């Protein structure tokens, strides 16, 4: 007999937006922004061009009771209908998580990513002791998001980018929460 742990996600309120759990109704906006080459190439997991069904599969995985990653959308609307980006925490062992995020290009350079990461760290919805983050070295803006939120640089590595089809050098950061 196996035990499946069910995780629930809180809504995290900020002054500018809410971080709310992803919903099936977000598929259109996630497909629009995730399908943008600039967004896909800044992540390790989003393919480009975005094949049919990938967004829906991603959402279903994010909603599964036995998921290993919690995903929130950055929603500035009053009615829960907008997606400016997404932020996720992937569970690791020993009360650690890895953070990942993206923001729609139209909202770049407006502090949304930094505010979302700061809100996630403050809320600490997975009760982490440590959060890791990794960014491609050709994306210094994403590195600034982490350092602005108190993450410390711990080294270099590399990660495969599905959109680029190559392994890309990364910088790795850590935030200790206890």
Structural account:
The chain has an eight-stranded mixed sheet, covered by helices on one side. It is globular and about 35 Å long. The protein is built from five helices and eight strands; from the N terminus they run ββαααβββαβαββ. The N and C termini lie far apart (35 Å). It has 178 residues and is of the alpha+beta class.
| Cα separation of the termini | 35 Å
Topology pattern, helix = H, strand = E:
EEHHHEEEHEHEE
> Any low-confidence stretches, pLDDT <50, length ≥5?
none
- What portion of residues is helical? 10-25%
> Strand-residue fraction?
25-35%
Cα gyration radius (Å): 15 Å
Mean pLDDT: 95
Q: Kindly state the number of beta strands.
A: 8
**Tally of separate helices:** 5
Strand order of the largest sheet: 1-2-3-4-5-6-8-7
* Helix/strand class: alpha+beta
The coarse overall form would be: globular
């Amino acid at each position: 007999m196996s035990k499946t742990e069910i995780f629930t996600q809180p809504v995290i309120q900020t002054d500018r937006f809410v971080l709310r759990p992803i919903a099936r109704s977000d598929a259109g906006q996630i497909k629009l922004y995730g399908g943008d080459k600039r967004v896909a190439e800044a992540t390790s997991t989003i393919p480009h061009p975005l094949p049919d069904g990938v967004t829906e599969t991603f959402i279903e995985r994010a909603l599964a009771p036995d998921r290993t990653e919690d995903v929130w959308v950055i929603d500035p609307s009053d009615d829960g209908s907008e997606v400016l980006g997404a932020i996720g925490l992937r569970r690791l062992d020993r009360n650690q998580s890895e953070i990942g995020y993206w923001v729609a290009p139209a909202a770049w350079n407006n502090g949304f990513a930094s505010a979302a990461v700061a809100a996630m760290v403050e809320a600490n919805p997975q009760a982490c002791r440590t959060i890791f983050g990794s960014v491609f070295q050709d994306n210094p803006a994403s590195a600034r998001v982490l350092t602005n939120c108190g993450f410390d640089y711990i080294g270099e590595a590399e990660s495969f980018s599905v959109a680029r089809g190559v392994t890309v050098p990364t910088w790795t950061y850590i935030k200790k929460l206890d």
